[in-house]
C-alpha cells in the first residue's frame, strides 16, 4: 500500500511535470531580452524617454521632437498616423529600459544633453505641448479672458457712440480751415490760423483783428508789410516763421494740418494706411515715407525724433523753421540706428513730442509702441531659440511681399469704403490695439522655461 501511495504520488508529480515545463518555458527571462525589442525606429538605438503615440509605436522623445520640428506634422514617423493631443512619456517603458540597459541609457542621456540642437528641439516641442494644453482648459480663464471682456465692452460702447454720431449728423465734415480755401477765409479764420502757429504769435493777434485781415489780404502780405505799422513785427525770426507758414498756405491753397485729427481729415486714406502699416512693418513704412512723402511727413518726423543740437534759449519759431531744413549727418546717424534696432522707439518719441496737443492719444501710442517692441523681441528670441536664423531672409521676403500686396490692394479699395467704416477702423487701430497687444505680451511672457530633459 505504501508503494502504491508513493507510486501514485510519483505518478501525480510526473503528470504535473509537462505542465510545469510548459509554464517555465513560457515565463520571460531577462537573459533572452534583446536590445532590438527596446530600440527606437528612428535612431535604431535603445529608447531614451520612450514616448508612445496613439498608433502604439514608441520613439525616443528627442527623435520625435526632431521629427516634429523638421516636418511640422503631428503624425507618426513610421506609419504616418496622426497623433491626438500631445504625446507623453511612457513611464513603465522608461523605467524598464533604465533598469535593463542602464549604461547605454546613461551614455545616451549625456550625449543628448551635450547636443545643443537636440536640447533646443526638445524645448520647442515641450513649449508646443504646453501651449496646446493651456489653450483648452484655460481658454476662458486668466488674463486673456479679462482683456477679451474689456475689449468686447469697449467695442460695444464705441460702436454705439459712432452709430449715434453718424445717424445724428454730428460727424459731417465741418467747414474747417484745412478744407476751406484761403481766399474765402474770414478775419476770424485768419486770427485762428495765427493762433495755431504757437504762443509767440499771440503778440500779433490784435493788429490782425483791428485791420480785419481776411484771406485775400493775408495772401498779399510780405516781409515789408509785416515790418511796418500796423503790424510792426520787429522780430525777424517771427516774420520768417509767419512768412514760411504763409508760403505753405499759398502752395496748398488751404491751411496745412497741424495735429492728428486735421491730418486724418486731409489725408483719410493715408492716415489709415500709416496707422496699420507702422504697426505691422515700421521699417518698411518709414522707408515708404522717405521715398514718396519726404518733405511733408518724413522730414518733420525725423526732426521731431532726432532733433538737431540747438542753442540755449532758441525760440519756438526758429525750431519751426528747422523742421523744414535738411537733416545733419548726426541726425541721419541717430535716425538710422533707431530705425534698424528700435523702430517703435521712433514712434514713441514722436508721440511724446505731441503730449501737449494729444494728451491721451499720445499715451495710447506710446504704450502700444512699447508693447510692439516686446512682441518683436519675443519673435526674434523664438527664431534664435529654435535655430531658425537661416530662415530669416525667407521670412523677410515673405513679409515684404505680403505688405506690398496688402498695401497695393488697400490703395485701390479704400476709396470705395464709406467714411464711417474708415473712421471705425481708424479709431479701432488707434485705441484698441494696445488692449489686444497686452494680451499677446502676457501670453508671450508667461511661457515656462521647460527643461530639455
Automatic annotation (TrEMBL):
The chain crosses the membrane at residues 145-166, 364-385, 406-430. It is an enzyme of class 2 (transferase). It is a multi-pass membrane protein. This is Bifunctional apoptosis regulator. It is found in: Endoplasmic reticulum membrane. CDD domains: RING-HC_BAR, SAM_BAR. It holds the Pfam family SAM_1. GO terms for biological process: apoptotic process; proteasome-mediated ubiquitin-dependent protein catabolic process. Interacts with CASP8, BCL2 and BCL2L1 through SAM domain and also with HIP1, IFT57, ESRRBL1 and BCAP31. Interacts with NGFR; this interaction inhibits NF-kappa-B and JNK-related signaling pathways. The lineage of its organism: Eukaryota, Metazoa, Chordata, Craniata, Vertebrata. Keywords: Apoptosis, Endoplasmic reticulum, Glycoprotein, Membrane, Metal-binding, Transferase, Transmembrane, Transmembrane helix, Ubl conjugation, Zinc, Zinc-finger. GO terms for cellular component: endoplasmic reticulum membrane; nucleus. GO terms for molecular function: ubiquitin protein ligase activity; zinc ion binding. Membrane-bound E3 ubiquitin ligase that plays a role in several processes including apoptosis regulation or reticulum endoplasmic stress. Has anti-apoptotic activity, both for apoptosis triggered via death-receptors and via mitochondrial factors. Contributes to the dynamic control of IRE1/ERN1 signaling during ER stress by inducing BAX inhibitor 1/TMBIM6 proteasomal degradation. Promotes the activation of TGF-beta signaling by mediating the 'Lys-63'-linked ubiquitination of TGFBR1 which is critical to activate the pathway. PROSITE patterns: SAM_DOMAIN, ZF_RING_1, ZF_RING_2. Residues 185-252 form the SAM domain. It catalyses: S-ubiquitinyl-[E2 ubiquitin-conjugating enzyme]-L-cysteine + [acceptor protein]-L-lysine = [E2 ubiquitin-conjugating enzyme]-L-cysteine + N(6)-ubiquitinyl-[acceptor protein]-L-lysine. Residues 40-80 form the RING-type domain. Its EC number is 2.3.2.27. Its main location: endoplasmic reticulum. The keyword Secreted does not apply.
